[in-house]
Structures are given as C-alpha cells and as structure tokens.
Amino acid sequence: MGSLLIRGGRPLHGRLKVSGAKNAALPILAGTLLTQEVTRIHNLPHLHDITTMMELLGCLGVGLTVDERLGIEVDGSSVNNVRAPYELVKTMRASILVLGPLLARFGEAEVSFPGGCAIGSRPVDLHLKGLEAMGADITVEDGYIKAKAPGGLRGADITLETVTVGGTENLLMAATLAHGKTVLRNAAREPEVVDLAQFLIAMGAKIAGAGSSTIEIEGVSALHGCDYTVMPDRIEAGTYLVAVAATGGKVRLEGVIPSHVAIVLDKLREAGADISVESDAIELDMAGRRPSAVAVTTAPYPGFPTDMQAQFTALNTIAEGVGRVTETVFENRLIQTHEMNRMGADIQIEGNTAIVTGRPTLRGAPVMASDLRASASLVIAGLVASGETVVDRIYHIDRGYECIEEKLQSLGADIRRQTH
Ligand code: UD1
User: Fold this and answer.
1) Span 276-324, pLDDT tens digits
2) Which atom of ligand 1 is nearest to the CA of 22?
3) How far, in Å, are 77, 230, 256, 301 from residue 234 at the CA level?
4) Is the minimum distance from the CB of 123 to ligand 1 under 6 angstroms?
5) Does 75 sit in the ligand 1 pocket, CB within 6 Å?
6) pLDDT digit string (tens) for 133-166?
7) Does pTM surpass 0.85?
8) In angstroms, rounded to a whole number, what is the distance separating the alpha carbons of residues 62 and 87?
9) Is the distance from the beta carbon of residue 372 to the nearest atom of ligand 1 less than 6 Å?
10) Active site residue ranges
11) Atom of ligand 1 minimally distant from the CA of 301
12) b/e string for 287-316 if b means 16 or more Cβ within 10 A?
C-alpha cells in the first residue's frame, strides 16, 4: 500500500492546469450506455475511479478505445449484460449511476446494492423511489437491486425529498428515454449535473432547466453518438487553492471555471488571500501571510461544497483565530480532525461542528486517511507542518486527484510517493 512522504513548511508557488472533473466524468461515462452509437469523451482525468467505471462499462459489453490524450471512444452497440457486479460496486459507489441508463435503454438492470462508506450511510432510496415513480418494478435480492420496466419507463412528476446529486443524475438519464415528460423537482444544481445534461443534450435529449431546482425532460425514442469534453474539476481547483493559501504561497490556476468556485474564493478572500479572476484562470496570492480563520457550513450547490470542508478545516488549524466548520450533508465527515489533532491541531467536535482553534504551526506525524477529501486535507496539513508527515492509505487520493505529487512538486513542495 502506498503513502506520501511530505517535508512541510515551504510556501507553494507556480502555475497549474486543472484536470477534468471526476464527478462529471463518472455520470457522463454511465450516460454513454444510453445509445448504441459511438460517443467520444475528452478531458477525462487519469484516476482510479475513472478506470473502475471503464471496467464496469467493459463488463457490460461496451467497446472502449482509449487514446493517448485522455480521450475515450465508447461503442454502446455491443452491450450484452445488464448486471453491475458487487466486485466493482464495492470499490466505487458511483457505479449506481449505470442503473438509470441501463433500465431506460434495455428495460432491465441489476446493480449490486452499494454499502455505506467512511463518511456516512449514503442510502440510494431516492434513486429507487424516482425510478419506481417512472414505472419500474424494483426488488432487492441477494444484495442486488433488480429493476424491470419491460414496456419502457414513463415520464413522471418527481419531487426529491433531499437534494441528491447522484439521484438527480440517475433520474435525469433514465428520463431521457422514457415515454412522455418527466419533471424533477428539488433537483441538485451542481455544475456536474449541468455538464451531464449538456452531454445528454449533445446526444439528442430534450432537457430544460438543468442548473435550477426544476429540470424538465421530454423523453425521446433514441439518443445518438456525440463528442463531448468534460468540464474542469472545481474540487481539485479548490483543493490546490487552499493548499497554496495555507502555505502562504502564490499560484495561477489555468483551465478552471471561476464561477464554479465562487463561494470557495469568497472564503479564501476572507482568510486573507488576494485573488484575481480571468475567464478561465484564477490567481491567488497569500504573500507569506498567515491565514485568518473562516467559518464554513456545507450545503448543496451553490452553497459551500462538502467536498471542500476537510481542506478548509486544515486551513483553519494554522489560521489566526477560531474557525467553526459545520457539516450538514454527510453525517460522519469530520473524521479527519482526529488525525489533524495528532499533528498538533486543536479541533473540538460539537455535534456536526468542528471548532478549530488556529495554532502557529503543526508538527509532522504519520497519519492515515479514511476517505478521498480527508486524505487531501491531511496532505495540506503535511505541507504546512514542520518536519515529516507520512500520509498512509493514499489509494483514496488516487481515486480523485490526478498526479497529486507531481502537481505539488511543480509548485515547489517536497513530497514523494513511497510504496511499501
Ligand atoms: C456526490 C459526489 C460527492 C459529493 C456529494 C455531495 C459524485 C460521484 N460524488 O455524491 O463527491 O460529496 O455528491 O455534494 O458525484 N441521500 C439520501 N438518499 C438517496 C441519495 C442521497 O438520503 O437516495 C443523502 C445522502 O446520504 C447525503 C445527501 O443525500 O446525506 C447528499 O448525497 P448525494 O448528493 O446523493 O451524494 P452523491 O451523489 O453520493
């Protein structure tokens, strides 16, 4: 199992290109199942989760050709299996995203029931309720969700009880091939939902309102192939901005959509960063200053992203003042705080809030990550700490950050991967 060895205390400086968004690429790859024609997807990030989704498509019978420039050609004409097996679903919960497309195109699908994970129980009840409202017959047997709609799905008026990104995406994909009109209310407004909708529109889907909380989909009888470029990763962008701010450095991020990270930029300005924005670039300069503590409360988009919560907790550990970080989306997502305390941070947990009293510095220590964004926050803590930090279990990081050590090295960080 690999780890990252970090010798902290160096301000990060330089420029970085942001990769394609994992959380847009995953539903888009699942969405390729909706057509028997060829789709070409560009700007895929080089990540374990993407490889897992490709493996899943391959096991459904899809033909895949990967080019050297992070593009992939997907041929959906050869699908010969509608079962997503436990072995793949257990390594990536987002495998549930094939349920809607398979059911819509083939009238049946079987997907292993995804379990909970480190950050919470993460049910998929709203995905299933929505598909049932569209006429699917769903049972759970032997740990598998078995869904059938022999005569095809029907459009329906669905109000999602909780804002769910994956639920919105699954139902959006299913509705593109349903008979009649579907209305999704209280839909997720995340940019990744919009990117998926734009991909589906490029395939001939009739969708209005993506990016608002009501999405209307008029079902069509078939979708066609297309070429599509995945949006930049706003969470990767935010993570590097926080890493640079925490170390007092300066960075120019390129290939980013600044409006997607507006709330993150507001919080970084509040922490003391000078930030300027161009159409597809962001410059952040901390000029060696110690950050000021900031309060954040996570919420669905356009609120503060839960996927940026751990990184801001790390920033607060060395900030001036006391920062309150409240997690409202997942029930168990403050776990990384215990590892940060082992590095000398002062974090108290009260319910779903972390009260972070900033210290002038952290001390390096061996730490262990429990989920993807928690790992990133421990890397940030290691970059500011004095001495050596070893972040263990970095397979979590490789699920979501492309070449993290190369990117940080290019900014002057002393970081290297160890395999042991
Ligand atoms: C996606 C992102 C993840 C991000 C999260 C919230 C992907 C691949 N992952 O996860 O990085 O942290 O959005 O922004 O895009 N819920 C239910 N029932 C359901 C579905 C969800 O109760 O059927 C609850 C969840 O337990 C959670 C909340 O709704 O408390 C939000 O979850 P959701 O938006 O569905 O997260 P994911 O799509 O799994």
Assistant:
1) 999 999 999 999 999 999 999 999 999 999 999 999 999 999 999 999 9
2) 8
3) 33, 12, 7, 12
4) yes
5) no
6) 999 999 999 999 999 999 999 999 999 999 999 9
7) yes
8) 18
9) no
10) 117
11) 14
12) eeeebbbbbbebebbeebbbbbbbbbbbbb
